[in-house]
Amino acid sequence: xxxxxxxxxxxxxxxxxxxxxxxxxxxxxxxxxxxxxxxxxxxxxxxxxxxxxxxxxxxxxxxxxxxxxxxxxxxxxxxxxxxxxxxxxxxxxxxxxxxxxxxxxxxxxxxxxxxxxxxxxxxxxxxxxxxxxxxxxxxxxxxxxxxxxxxxxxxxxxxxxxxxxxxxxxxxxxxxxxxxxxxxxxxxxxxxxxxxxxx
Length: 199
Known about the structure:
Rossmann fold; 199 residues; globular
C-alpha cells in the first residue's frame, strides 16, 4: 500500500527550462562577465571604433532620427558619437519602458539634457520630453549570432518593439567577442546589422 505522506512530502519538481533559453542564460552570464573584465583603455578604443562606424553608417543611410541608449553594465559608451550626430542635426531619443509586456517608447533627448530614474532604475528623459518614432534604433547587445539575432538581458523589450508592423531599422551594437552560437526563438527579432569593434 502506498503511503500518501511520502508523496505529500516530496517537493514539487520545477519545470525544466527550454534548452534554447538555458543556453542563452549561460551565454549571457559568460559574456557579461567578459564585458565586466574589459581593460578600461582597450574598452575606450573599442568604443571609439564602434562610434566611428555608427557615424559612417548614419551618414551613408541619411539618418535623420535615431533611438540611442544610455550605457549600463559595461555597454559601449558612444556619447562622442551622439554629440557628433546631434551637431549634424540628427534627432536623438532614448528608450522608456512603459509596461512589462509593452514595446518601448522613445523620448526626444539631446546630450546634456537632464535624465531621471524610472521605476527600474534606468536613466530616461523627463516625462515632459516629446515622444518620437525614430527612423532607426541603436540596439545594445550582450551577444548576437550569425543570423543577427540579439542576445539581450532577457526582458524582451526590444523584440516587442521590433515586432511592430512598421518597424524602424535596427542596428545592433556589440563587442566582437559577443558573436556566439545560439538558435533564435520564435519571439527573437533579427537586427538589420551589427556594429562591432572588429578590425
